[in-house]
Specification:
Elements lengths: L1 H33 L5 E10 L5 E12 L3 E3 L1 H11 L2 H21 L6 E5 L2 H5 L3 H12 L6 E6 H5 L2 H14 L2 E7 L6 H6 L4 E4 L11 H16 L3 E4 L5 H9 L4 E2 L10 H9 L8 H6 L1
Parallel strand pairs: 2-4, 4-5, 5-6, 6-7, 7-8, 8-9
Antiparallel strand pairs: 1-2, 1-9, 2-3
Helix pairs in contact: 1-2, 3-5
The chain binds ligand C2E and magnesium ion (3 copies).
One magnesium ion binds next to loops.
Organism: Keguizhuia sedimenti
Protein name: EAL domain-containing protein
Keywords: Membrane, Transmembrane, Transmembrane helix
Length: 290
Amino acid sequence: HAKSLGRNNYQFYTAEMNTRIHEKFAMQEGIRHALDRNEFFLDYQPQLHLHSGRIIGAEALIRWRHPQKGLVSLTDFIGLAEETGLIAPIGEWVLQSACMQNKDWQDRGLPPLVVSVNVSARQFKENNLVQQVKQALEHSGLEARYLELEVTESLIMQNVQQAVAIMKELQAMGIQLSIDDFGTGYSSLSALKSFPITRLKLDRSFVRDLPHDEDDKAIAKAVISLGHELNLKVLAEGVETAAQLSFLCENGCDEMQGYFFSRPISADLLAALIQTQDAATLPSDAQRVS
Ligand code: C2E
Ligand code: MG
Ligand code: MG
Ligand code: MG
């Protein structure tokens, strides 16, 4: 009995593995063609200055609308794109599009925003990131100070010296740099000191259980003071509730991003949101606390 059960299990797994390999291959082919077929687009999530409640920037987040499957989950394709190297041309497309979009907002008379673009480990390693950024700025006509690149600690720690050298080149061009998902990686404090960055993005896993979880409260406060000691701005990611927002305001956090104010939205919707910003009432707690 045990033997036949084992055999069945074995067959079950191979069939499942076959399907998975097939799906993975199909997905790779899909990603390969998605750029040519214009299936990618960017959503933008507003970033707010906590004290004034104003929108100061927006993070560009890639989306893939597959002709048959509809919207494909990011976790399903970013990893695969990274594995196959396709993330490089995709990343270049994201940079170009985000810069063009930001310039377009400015040309339409919106107050200037900083657009944040996520950078993948591959883009960093393949050593032409600086060139890509230059081209995106030239092509779009966007000034460097309106572009921010988000890098993760793990990306930097793969090769600190090389990463810092690239970041310094970008900084010299006038680009802003931030550490994404801060607190989840392994950067030492001495390494952090040498990064030419302007802000830390406190990972949303530390924001989720605020203001109840004692450990997260301690971590959030510590990151805010660490950031300020190092002359950096601190942005809290994943703010979903008024109570989280109050805690962050009370503890001197500078900026926030999260569903409480807005999910990632289309470029047009963001423009409309900003145009009505002066008239719009801010989330009441942001006003009350500041
Ligand atoms: P990330 O850079 O940390 O981006 C923030 C993610 O948190 C986004 O997920 C956003 O939708 C989500 N988020 C924002 N506010 C909240 C909130 O209040 N609650 C919750 N639960 N989630 C919130 P998204 O768009 O699914 O992106 C996931 C990750 O995929 C990003 O994490 C980033 O690492 C990566 N990614 C997205 N776009 C790009 C891209 O263009 N290039 C690269 N290399 N990576 C990207
Ligand atoms: Mg990010
Ligand atoms: Mg993040
Ligand atoms: Mg993340």
